[in-house]
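Sequence in, structure out. Go.
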Amino acid sequence: MNQNNSRGKRGTMSKLSLAFGWILLSLLGSQILPAAAEGYSVGLTEDKPYIHVIHEGKSVRIARIQDPNFELRGYYAKTARKCPPFCLKPMHAAPGVETIGEVELFDFMEGPLRDGTGLLIDARTPAWHTKGTIPGAVSYPFTLLTKPADDPVWDKILPKFGVVPARNTGLWEQILEKLGLREKRKVRGKWDFTHAKELVLFCNGPACGQSPRAIRGLVAIGYPPEKIRYYRGGMQMWEIWGLTTVKPKSSGKPER
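Output:
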């Protein structure tokens, strides 16, 4: 009886292992070939044929151009522009600010941007923004984000970035913060950046200085650099990879 029971258990375990193996293989297969399964010969990454973002209240699918013979034309296809002013910019816009590429931007779009804890900022002037931008982006030109800390424009902008006016804390709150029992507030001047949104800024590409200037402007007024990312590739690399762009329906005026 014991031998029979033992054989039965082994047989059951063998079937379970085989079933688990098929499930695992199916999952791996769906991760490896999703683009082809969806009819996309050119995916975003190995496991993402496309993603969706909300732009001006509507869902927009971000994908790459599928035509292998497509050639980029126009401004972003140019390889030479007068330098200065169109000189290649450093990889890092400011100390503590992370520089990211397209894949990291996709992750940001499906994470902080989607759940409302992040903003994708087009730091170019409104004239550039209206010509076409990355889906999900909002316009905050570098000309606004480089204002002095005491400029009233920040009173309109920063609350939209999750920043609130600083307030005086009581003794008990200060004790809890020192003991590590309460999140330490990030107060800079008259602003509390504790719950500031994660930001990704971009402009026209590696030779564009608009988003680096905007980033330095934000850091100068106290925005935590660890909450800012720099998409250095900008519109030029976005267009070179054949990724979806949109033309804003608004007049191109910045979000304020």
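Check: The CA atoms of residues 25 and 178 lie 50 Å apart. Confidence is low (pLDDT under 50) at residues 1-33.
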